[in-house]
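Q: For a teaching handout, I want to show students what a protein-ligand complex looks like in token form. Below are the inputs, and the small molecule is calcium ion. Please produce the holo structure.
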Amino acid sequence: MGRPVCFDQFHAAEIGIVHAVLRYARRVFLAGVDHITGKDFAFRREWILIAACLLVGQSLAEEARYRQPEGRGVAAQYPGDKGIAEHPDVIYATDFTKGIEAPLRPRRRGVSLIEDSDLARTGGAAARIVATKGADEGGDLSIQWDEGAEQIFVRVYVRFDKNTAMPHHFINVGGNTPTYEFRWGGGAGRRPPGDENGSFGTTLEPPKNPDGYWQFYTYWHEMRSWQTPEGKSDGRPSAYYGNNFGYPKKTPRLERDSWICVEYMIKLNQVGEHDGEMAFWIDGINYGHWKPGSPQGRWLRENFFTRGQFFENFANPQPFEGFSWRTHESLKINRAQLQWFLSERSYRDSEVDEYIVYFDNLVISKSYIGPIADEIP
Ligand SMILES: [Ca+2]
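A: Here is the structure, written as tokens, with calcium ion included.
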């Protein structure tokens, strides 16, 4: 019986390197004295050791470069978030005890301050946004800052009212240059440029049902179109809506009438590289991280699938390529939004008239923030 061929033994999508190295080593004289020729190959031991150290070092360095923290962060130094705005990495922080004040800007109807110490996460006040069926599409609290950043974390406590439907779009972070044509919104359906007139942004969406997954909905200059399986536009209008990024790690069951600590992050690429990232955390645990080489998935139309039938029925998953958020240095991260946008689609399957969300303890920082200090065991 002949030796089986490699492609019968190994699936292209599986890692088979350990086995392959063992077989190779068994058939080649590597080190020590070769009893047939009498030649001493001991010097190869050092080569092998050096090569192995280099390989381990490279993979550790790669791992460390893209590692994201969990649990304690900047907030651990400021119990109850008191004084957290003074940390040098923090761009903005509010617990709403001074109201909704600039630079935080309420937009559209339905945004108000609630002074109720039983309800607020800390400090007796929180922001509330109400969307009213048949009357409006909700509202949002937006913030922009002058000096754009290379990496931004947004942490906010979120509380969904027990009767609310889930929003069409939720909390986001991104950037645009002052000359971007839709800088106050209105870019839906189009792919933004990544250059000095450009924009990008990612929106973290809660699950539509309690056992679903949180996921990202993302716009940038390399986003895919819904119009063809390859993600190219076929020439019809409105070719580009946000790309969907699910993650294989199950997020916790979504509870209503209870504060959830949500944090999300964008890290920019170096211009010309695909080394940009995004990630999110629920209650201090990382449940999704897109970076060069991970996760394994499959592009189809405007989706990067990492689970479900469109992933499982596909033979050759690819490692995520990493984000090129921009093609020009001047495009940086300079805006975030606590959005509560409900559409006809959100209202359709729900009986109530008012859809309510609460926000508290917002922090925007250049480094990982983590949950409020008194919550970490
Ligand atoms: Ca508060």
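A: Two things your students might notice: Residues 95-97, 120-123, 125-126, 360 surround calcium ion (CB under 6 Å). The first helix runs from residue 6 to 9.
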